[in-house]
Specification:
Layout: E1 4-9, H1 14-25, E2 28-34, H2 38-48, E3 52-54, H3 57-61, E4 68-71, H4 78-87, E5 91-94, H5 102-115, E6 119-121, H6 129-139, E7 146-154, H7 170-173, H8 178-194, E8 198-206, E9 211-214, E10 233-236, E11 242-249, E12 254-260, E13 269-276, E14 280-284, E15 290-294, E16 301-304, H9 330-344, H10 359-378, E17 382-383
Parallel strand pairs: 1-2, 1-4, 2-3, 4-5, 5-6, 7-12
Antiparallel strand pairs: 7-13, 8-11, 8-17, 9-10, 11-12, 13-14, 14-15, 15-16
């Protein structure tokens, strides 16, 4: 197997998750890491035997040994880094949102068409085995015509005024927070499972904490709530903590999403249900090893994650026998496995259909966020 050398830019919450996933798929060497946090990159390099470290991400992109760039930086850096990497002929796996605006993501889509590099966005929840199974059930017409999709994505890590993170700053994160950060995952998941795009939205957003206490020390994502005291500078918040979005799919089906980062007790509850003319299916990210199947004429079912019970084409995403749970770290691993197989095979994304989310999926999610923000402002339905 040809070894492909990868470089990871960013060492916050998600950067190390990328590194750990890459170490598990085989045939990939994490050869370089870049970050302004010199202590963090020193620790990661020692922990994972990474040969090269850079304080300047541009030097990593320009490293001739690196074939694939993993962009794990804050949102405001995505466009610049992705653009430079694509122009350098590197394959790119970017965190979402792909860029801060749909204008930028549209430019990137034009660029990857021109350059022909492999490009992916880390919508990792697609790659739980039972999500793949749910999609196959829809494709096989087991669900029937999709009538309704509904659900929520709820967290509590920004519940208090003293909770703080760079995602709260619109100059760094973007004009939308809760919808762009976690709502985009839910929208991508529902569209992936049903095979239907979201075509219009009606949104009502809210900022519960109008002001927050920004600490003098940096707070890593999800780590801020472990600190107590509330000492710091009072700042105004101009992005949403929560929201409710009605939506319509391209077949005319209705939908509803509740998104929140201020729901006490909900740590990372991404839940959806698809109601069809034959049966319904539902899945909860906090209980990822079971898929609920609803019936009208007989008892409901719970399908457990067991390779022997899954569609043959889905079994490769379930790496352990039934009764052996698989979880969050396995989603990125499965996504990266597909991307690196695509690269190793020499496929061209302009000619071959990728089996992973691409920059075009990231661009569509940006357009959904645009429509949500516009709908909230104008208080009416907006087409995507």
């Amino acid at each position: 197997m040809r070894i492909i050398r990868a470089g990871v830019i960013g060492t916050g919450f998600i950067g190390p998750a990328h590194i750990e996933a890459l170490k598990r798929i085989g045939g990939v060497e994490v050869a370089a890491v870049a970050s302004l946090d010199t202590e963090r990159i020193r620790q990661l390099a020692a922990q994972h035997q990474i040969r090269s470290t850079y304080s300047d991400w541009k030097a990593l992109v320009d490293d001739p040994e690196i074939e694939v760039i993993h962009n794990c930086t804050p949102n405001n850096l995505h466009y610049e880094i992705n653009t430079r990497a694509v122009n350098a002929g590197k394959h790119v796996i970017s965190e979402k949102p792909l860029t801060m605006t749909s204008r930028e993501s549209g430019v990137l889509c034009d660029l990857v068409r021109k350059q022909g590099v492999v490009h992916a966005v880390n919508f990792n929840y697609r790659f739980y085995p039972l999500i793949q199974q749910a999609r196959r059930m829809v494709q096989a017409d087991e669900i029937g015509e999709v009538y309704l999709v509904h659900g929520h994505y709820l967290q509590d890590w920004l519940l208090y005024r003293t909770d703080y993170n760079w995602r709260l700053e619109s100059k760094t994160s973007g004009a939308s927070r809760a919808v762009a950060d976690i709502g985009s995952h839910w929208c991508d998941l529902v569209q992936f499972v049903t095979g239907l795009k979201i075509r219009s939205v009606f949104a009502d957003l809210s900022t519960v904490q109008k002001t927050r206490v920004k600490p003098s020390a940096h707070a890593d994502t999800f780590k801020g709530k472990e600190r107590r005291g509330g000492k710091g500078k009072e700042v105004r918040i101009d992005t949403e903590d929560a929201g409710v979005v009605m939506l319509r799919l391209e077949n005319g089906a209705q939908g509803a999403l509740t998104v929140s980062q201020v729901s006490a007790g909900r740590k990372n509850r991404e839940w959806f249900e698809v109601d069809g003319s034959k049966k319904a299916i539902a899945w909860d990210q906090e209980e990822p090893n079971q898929l609920w199947i609803g019936h009208r004429e007989k008892p409901n079912e719970i399908l457990l994650k067991d390779p022997s019970l899954l569609d043959p084409e889905v079994r490769r995403y379930a790496h352990y026998p039934g009764g052996h749970p698989e979880g969050y770290p396995d989603g990125p691993k499965n996504l990266f496995m597909n991307v690196y197989e695509f690269i190793r095979s020499g496929k061209d994304p302009r000619k071959h259909r990728p089996d992973f989310p691409t920059f075009f999926d990231g661009h569509w999610e940006n357009k959904i966020v645009d429509a949500v923000l516009k709908s909230h402002k104008l208080k009416r339905w907006i087409d995507v």
